[in-house]
Write a structure and sequence with these properties.
The protein has 21 helices and 22 strands. With 623 residues, it is an alpha+beta fold. The strands form five sheets. The protein has an eight-stranded mixed sheet, covered by helices on one side.
């Protein structure tokens, strides 16, 4: 057989032309081309221009910023502020590359606290659009105007501050303009960019106009009001206030309960020293904090603000400044994770409205090396419930055949004359989940509290109670280990073998005994007893993969929690079980004292509140 013929291309198929760069001598690029290359990183779309210019206004001390767009920002982006303005002598440098008033040395760069600092945004924008800059300081008798097309500054009319107009974006680079989306899509990106900035600066008033129609108006005010204007009332009704400080690190903001989970990540906002960022480490910490309460593929919603010493974070990572790098990445990860975990775990007995939840968050540990989480109880009084004899039977699965007829109130039951029957009004100071009225189809508990009617999924509620108790029992001491009769040999890469050797002590502390059996082979001699029945090779490989970036304890805890959740699900009271009033009330009291009792182990809600107003609307009362 002619092997040479087999290697020939079939007839009719053309060989693609080879891309061979032209032969040329090394030469200096023109300044305009340099700026256009830089613009490819800084000016991705109109929203990028809006972000850079609004951040410049904030750095100038503006208290009001008005944004005007035409055709999604492609035809015109106009930013007007009431900031300090630019002095007449500095105007020629305003559109020059690498010219800035925000840093002057490497020390300034390592502790930068302003939004901008690179000195290339305006120059990059001016290289791909027609820019007009009008500004006036308090000391000037009139304003000055400078155009990117050339020429010197000329007198202009402006009361105070700065106005930047960016017209005909990418007019001189048509290939870049073709990559832009429709007008509505580009406007949506611009609106989202402004909302992000406005969320981090509630003390500044913002307005947004598109094609001469006002789309957004945000007056300066309190953070809660800005959150309500951007997220809406539903988010406010389902969020917990977060305010945790450890040393010079502080996490504030709002985290929505899992009942408000989303199908996408459209309502996840993380700010570092006031700057919106997309950081994998922070996102991972938040996702892990929600992992125990969020259902399936749903995503949490939050607006969180992390503040720390500027020297502890490097913002000079990406030209768009949306990525950061922390000096103590592991400590920051653990701090954020524990702060959010405690905020979401606040029992019902200690969590009221959003404004009350801040008092329920205990202090979190400061990032340090090595990290040692150590929470102290704050003002929230978390107590183990005192179960009644009936509830002890209920928890063990021993259910009485007929309801009791005791006249005296028992653990968790309403007092005589209280809210035990529909005929009596809810008493002042009633517990959050109220008192049981009845059981519906052996699945739901109907209870009455001060607000109205509470529906409780008894299986889901009991499942969460058992799950948390199982976790507490495991956390009380070192995890028991299971020695394998025959060590499991696992083929790994040299990198994973090094990771295992470097973390041998940490692995041993959580129940793993792993030793090298060769350059690319590990011998697993012992594993945590709770995980002994699982796929040991798959577990170890996943553990080593996570160890490259995250603490070992979090990986094992996640796997352990999966097993405990399964145990709790099978141990919880099943549907169609008839419960007595004492048992139902005891279950409600136990839920109120249990962390994360709003959701079962799979992230589904355990109870729903129907207010009297909602019930009145259902029956059209007052119409």
């Amino acid at each position: 057989m002619d092997h040479h013929r087999l290697l020939q291309r079939p007839a009719g198929l053309k060989q693609p032309p080879a891309i061979i760069p032209p032969v040329s001598h090394i030469h200096q690029l023109p300044d305009l081309l340099i700026s256009q290359i830089a613009a490819g990183e800084v000016v991705e779309r109109p929203a990028s221009v809006l972000k850079e210019l609004v951040e410049n206004s904030l750095d100038a001390g503006a208290t009001r910023i008005d944004v005007q767009l035409e055709e999604g920002g492609v035809r015109l982006i106009r930013i007007a502020d009431d900031g300090r303005g630019i002095e007449r002598d500095d105007l020629p440098l305003a559109l020059a590359r690498h010219a800035t008033s925000k840093i002057a040395s490497l020390d300034d760069l390592e502790r930068v606290a302003s939004y901008g600092f690179r000195g290339e945004a305006l120059a990059s924008i001016a290289s791909v659009a027609r820019v007009t800059l009008t500004t006036r300081t308090a000391a000037d008798s009139h304003a000055w105007r400078l155009r990117s097309e050339g020429g010197s500054a000329e007198p202009a009319a402006l009361a105070a501050g700065t106005v930047v107009e960016v017209a005909d974006l990418y007019y001189n680079t048509p290939a870049r303009r073709k990559f832009l989306k429709s007008e509505n899509t580009e406007y949506a990106h611009c609106a989202e960019a402004l909302r992000r900035i406005a969320l981090g600066r509630p003390d500044v008033a913002f307005s947004l106009m598109h094609n001469r129609t006002v789309k957004l108006r945000l007056p300066a005010g309190k953070p809660e009001q800005r959150l309500r204007e951007i997220f809406g009332e539903e988010f406010i009704a389902h969020c917990r206030d977060v305010d945790v400080t450890a040393g010079d690190v502080r996490l504030t903001g709002y985290a929505a309960l899992p009942a408000y989970s989303r199908s996408g990540r459209d309502e996840q906002y993380f700010f570092v020293n006031g700057r919106f960022v997309r950081d994998k480490l922070l996102s991972h910490a938040a996702r892990e904090a929600y992992a125990d309460v969020l259902h399936g593929l749903r995503h949490p919603a939050y607006a969180l603000f992390l503040s720390l010493d500027p020297a502890g974070v490097d913002v000079n990572v990406h030209p768009a400044k949306t990525e950061v790098r922390f000096r103590d990445s592991r400590g920051i990860h653990q701090f954020v994770f524990h702060a959010l975990t405690r905020a979401l775990a606040t029992p019902l007995a200690g969590a009221g409205a959003m404004t009350q939840a801040a008092a329920a968050v205990p202090p979190a540990p400061a990032p340090s090396a090595p990290y040692r989480p150590s929470f102290q109880q704050g003002r929230l009084d978390v107590r183990e419930p005192t179960p009644t004899a009936a509830y002890l039977d209920f928890a063990r699965g021993a259910f009485p055949a007929a309801p009791r007829n005791d006249a005296s109130p028992r653990g968790g039951e309403p007092p005589a004359g209280g809210a035990a029957t529909p005929s009596t009004g809810a008493s002042a100071g009633a517990p959050p989940l109220g008192y049981a009225l009845a059981q519906l189809h052996g699945i739901y508990i109907l209870a009455q509290n001060e607000a109205g009617l509470v529906l409780v999924d008894m299986h889901a509620g009991h499942e969460r109670i058992l799950y948390e108790k199982l976790k507490n029992a495991i956390d009380a001491g070192p995890p028991p280990t299971q020695v394998l009769l025959v060590p499991a040999l696992i083929a790994v890469s040299e990198t994973d073998a090094a990771v295992a050797a470097d973390n041998a002590e940490a692995l041993a502390g959580i129940g793993f005994e792993i030793a090298a059996a060769g350059p690319r082979e590990l011998a697993v001699r012992a594993v945590p007893a709770l995980l002994a029945g699982g796929d040991v090779p798959a577990l170890v490989r996943a553990l080593l993969a996570e160890l490259r970036e995250h603490p070992a304890s979090r990986v094992v805890e996640a796997r352990r929690n999966e097993l405990l959740a399964t145990m709790a699900c099978h141990g919880a009271v099943r549907a169609r079980r008839a419960l007595t009033p004492p048992e139902m009330n005891a279950l409600l009291r136990d839920m109120e004292a249990t962390e994360r009792a709003d959701q079962c182990n799979h992230g589904r809600p355990t109870w729903v509140q129907l207010s009297m107003a909602e019930l009145d609307r259902l029956f059209m009362r007052g119409k």
